[in-house]
C-alpha cells in the first residue's frame, strides 16, 4: 500500500528521518508530508511509532475527476465494504487545488454519497455520518483534476497523545514539539532545557523520545483496543488485533529506564504545575520549576535549549524580553540554543553587538506553527 504521513509545513525532513530510522520502506519526502510503502500493518506501526507526523493516511485509490460524475464513479470504484457497514460511522474531508471542482464541501458531499450508496446497495442500509468521532475518516485530495482518496489510519490527529489534559496559552502541538527536537539536532544525551515551558510539551516529548517510549504506548492502556481509527474499521480482525498486541509488547521492551536530565521552567507558576501534572500522566521525570528565563544558568554538561517564546498573534513578547533572552542565551557557553521564533525581534537581539563574543549565524529553518510561519533558529554558543 502507499501511505502518506502528513507534516506541519517545514517539518517534512523530521518525519522522513524518523521513518528511515524506524526502517519503513519507500520513504520519500514531499510537500506537506512523506510517502512510504508497505503492507497495511506498516500503516498501523507508523501510527504507533511516529512522533512527528500529524496523520498517517492510506491511499485507497487515485483517478481523474474533472467533474462530479467522475468523482462519484471513482469513489464508487473503491471497495468500502472492507471498512464500513451500516453499524459504523464515517466522515469525509476534502481539499483541492488547480481543479475544475473547487468547493471542498461539495467534493466531500459527493464522495460521501458515493460511499454510502455503494454500502446501501450491498447491505440494504447505509452507515451514518459522524463529523466529530467517525469510525472511518476519509480524505479526498483533488489536485489538477486528479483525485486521491485516503483513509486516515489514526482517525484523529496524532498529536493527541493523551498526556496533555491541560495547556497554558499557545501550546505547541506534541507532533510539532517532537519535530523541533529533531530539527534542532538534539542528541538525546545532553540535558534538555525549556526555560519557557508552558504546559511542558517540548520537555515531555523530549523525555519520551530519550527513553524510547513510543507514542502508541501513551494512550489509556485499559482502552487500548479502541486507540486508533483503524482499530474501529470493519477489516480490523483478530490477526490485526494480535499484531497490535505484539507491537505494544515489543515497544514496551524497548523502553529505556532512564534518560538525560530534562528541565522545564516558566515564569508562570500555574503552567509549571500543569507541566508537572502532564509529565506525570506521560510517565516521565522532568525537573519543573517556576523561574524567569532571565535567571537561566548554564548546565553541566552543556545542554540543549529548545524554547518557544511568546510572539506575534497569540502572545505579546516585546523587545525588552527578547533582549534579555539574547543576553542570557549568549552566555550559555558550549550549549546549543534553538528558538522557535515567530518574530525577527529575537534574531536581531541575538545578533546585536555586545561586549560578549559574537554569536555565529544561526541555522535557520522555516517551520509553520499552525497558520503562523516561524523560524527555527539554532545557535551553537561558542
Ligand atoms: C508560547 S508559550 C510556550 C508554550 C509551550 N511551548 C507549550 O507547548 O505549552 C510561552 C511561555 O513563555 C512564558 N514566559 C513569558 N515570559 C517569560 C519569562 N520572562 N520567563 C520565563 N517564561 C516566560 C509564558 O508564561 C508562556 O508559558
From TrEMBL:
User: Which Pfam family is one of this chain's hits?
Assistant: RlmL_1st
Name this polypeptide is given = RNA methyltransferase
Q: Which UniProt keywords apply?
A: Methyltransferase, RNA-binding, Transferase
CDD domains under this entry? THUMP_AdoMetMT (cd11715)
Q: Which PROSITE patterns is this protein grouped with?
A: THUMP
Organism the protein comes from: Chondromyces crocatus
Q: Does the keyword Lipoprotein apply?
A: no
MF-aspect GO terms: RNA binding; rRNA (guanine-N2-)-methyltransferase activity; rRNA (guanine-N7-)-methyltransferase activity
Highest taxon in the source lineage: Bacteria
Q: Where does the chain cross the membrane?
A: none
InterPro entries, alphabetized: RlmKL-like_Mtase (IPR000241), RlmL_1st (IPR054170), SAM-dependent_MTases_sf (IPR029063), THUMP_dom (IPR004114)
Q: Which SMART domains match?
A: THUMP
Sequence ranges assigned to domain THUMP in this UniProt record: 42-153
The record's PANTHER family line, in alphabetical order, gives: RIBOSOMAL RNA LARGE SUBUNIT METHYLTRANSFERASE K/L, RIBOSOMAL RNA LARGE SUBUNIT METHYLTRANSFERASE K_L
Amino acid at each position: 500500500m502507499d501511505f502518506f504521513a502528513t507534516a506541519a509545513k517545514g517539518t517534512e525532513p523530521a518525519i522522513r528521518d524518523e521513518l528511515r530510522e524506524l526502517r519503513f520502506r519507500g520513504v520519500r519526502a514531499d510537500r506537506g508530508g512523506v510517502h512510504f510503502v508497505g503492507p497495511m500493518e506498516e500503516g498501523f506501526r507508523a501510527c504507533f511509532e511516529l512522533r512527528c507526523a500529524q496523520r498517517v493516511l492510506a491511499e485507497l485509490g487515485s483517478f481523474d475527476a474533472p467533474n462530479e460524475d467522475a468523482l462519484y464513479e471513482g469513489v464508487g470504484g473503491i471497495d468500502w465494504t472492507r471498512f464500513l457497514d451500516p453499524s459504523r460511522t464515517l466522515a469525509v474531508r476534502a481539499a483541492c487545488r488547480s481543479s475544475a471542482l473547487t468547493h471542498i464541501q461539495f467534493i466531500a458531499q459527493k464522495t460521501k454519497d458515493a460511499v454510502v450508496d455503494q454500502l446501501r446497495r450491498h447491505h440494504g442500509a447505509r452507515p451514518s455520518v459522524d463529523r466529530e468521532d467517525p469510525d472511518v475518516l476519509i480524505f479526498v485530495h483533488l489536485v489538477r483534476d486528479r483525485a486521491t482518496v485516503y483513509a486516515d489510519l489514526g482517525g484523529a490527529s496524532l498529536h493527541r497523545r493523551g498526556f496533555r489534559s491541560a495547556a497554558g496559552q499557545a501550546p505547541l502541538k506534541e507532533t510539532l514539539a517532537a519535530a523541533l527536537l529533531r530539527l534542532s539536532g538534539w542528541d538525546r544525551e545532553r540535558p534538555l532545557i525549556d526555560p519557557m515551558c508552558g504546559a511542558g510539551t517540548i520537555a515531555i516529548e523530549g523525555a519520551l523520545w530519550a527513553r524510547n517510549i513510543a507514542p502508541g504506548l501513551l494512550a489509556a492502556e485499559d482502552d487500548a483496543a479502541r486507540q486508533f481509527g483503524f482499530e474501529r474499521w470493519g477489516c480490523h480482525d483478530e490477526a490485526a488485533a494480535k499484531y497490535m498486541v505484539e507491537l505494544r509488547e515489543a515497544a514496551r521492551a524497548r523502553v529505556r529506564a532512564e534518560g538525560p536530565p530534562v528541565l522545564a521552567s516558566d515564569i508562570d507558576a500555574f503552567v509549571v504545575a500543569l507541566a508537572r501534572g502532564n509529565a506525570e500522566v506521560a510517565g516521565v521525570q522532568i525537573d519543573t520549576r517556576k523561574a524567569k528565563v532571565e535567571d537561566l544558568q548554564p548546565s553541566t554538561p552543556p545542554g540543549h535549549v529548545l524554547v518557544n517564546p511568546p510572539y506575534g498573534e497569540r502572545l505579546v513578547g516585546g523587545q525588552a524580553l527578547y533582549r534579555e533572552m539574547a543576553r542570557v542565551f549568549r552566555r550559555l557557553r558550549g550549549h546549543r540554543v534553538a528558538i522557535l521564533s515567530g518574530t525577527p525581534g529575537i534574531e536581531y537581539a541575538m545578533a546585536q553587538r555586545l561586549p560578549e563574543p559574537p554569536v555565529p549565524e544561526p541555522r535557520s529553518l522555516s517551520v509553520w506553527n499552525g497558520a503562523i510561519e516561524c523560524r527555527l533558529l539554532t545557535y551553537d554558543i561558542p
